Amino acid sequence: MYTVKENVSKEAIESLLQSRQLTLDVPYQFSLGLFENSRLQGVLLYEDSLWESQMLQKKVMNVKLLAANSAGQLKRLFEAFYSVRQMDETDFIFVRVPAEDIGAAHVIQQQPSSYFVGSLLKLAKPPSFYDKTAPFFELGPPEPGDTEAICELARDSFTKSRYFQDPHLSREAANKIFQEWTRNNLNGRAAINIAAKHNGEVIGYLQGLSRDDECILDLMAVKPGFEGKRIAFHLLANLIEQPETQKHKTVTAGTQLHNVRAIRLYERMGFTAEQSYYYYHIWPGKEAK
């Protein structure tokens, strides 16, 4: 006899994950557990995605972790979660599934109005220094007057991202996400902001986060017409060589599995692949397109 319960204890979650050789390494707001005779068989960790909800004017949920002892139990657990989201009028659910978890990917793909919207390859390296010639442009912290130019550069710079692959999200809405994401980073969310400027014009930017021992490449873009001029290389090298970055144990970057150009850059700069994920958006209240 299966029962589904909310607010599973952290100890029970950790015990289940350890039995499956997984670790509890993600923050979460809510938990949902599948129990059989009082024994935890599966868990789903999730949160309200408040910033996304505000930007898109939609109710968005983010599934942070999904694990169970069998594919059947995983399906039963997710379907219970899906039913509640239908009743509370959630617009869409974002689910990130480790690429090696074929069972979980299959369960998510079977859900009504489920869309595969991309992938992520996470790469990492320890901080280092690079031999390089001086670029033809200047690198440095953005000036206050650069904000609008940098935010405008975010427009159409991230078209391989999941927001642009969702048939229920407009291009305008997807661009708004990245422009406001960029603005938030400039306003203090990012630990490091770097602008590339040529003759006073912003031709690229990079924003990095600091999280414990990890420096994270959050956003990077190069102005159309300036691709292939090693701007991304110099932006990333500048981030890695920052004194603040050198205090971290690792530098991480993420990009879509089909973004071959970005992956080649990271690999040339010493990054190695650590983990890959599949991304899904599920719209409980819509018919599949």
Automatic annotation (TrEMBL):
**Keyword list, A-Z:** Acyltransferase, Transferase
Record GO terms (molecular function): acyltransferase activity, transferring groups other than amino-acyl groups
Alphabetical list of SUPFAM superfamilies matching this protein: Acyl-CoA N-acyltransferases (Nat) (SSF55729)
**Record-linked InterPro entries:** Acyl_CoA_acyltransferase, GNAT_dom, MshD_Acetyltransferase
The record, for PROSITE patterns, names: GNAT
Q: Where do the N-acetyltransferase domain residues begin and end?
A: 137-289
Q: Name one Pfam family in it.
A: Acetyltransf_1
The enzyme's E.C. designation: 2.3.1.-
In Swiss-Prot or TrEMBL terms, this protein is called: Spore coat polysaccharide biosynthesis protein and putative acetyltransferase, GNAT family, SpsD
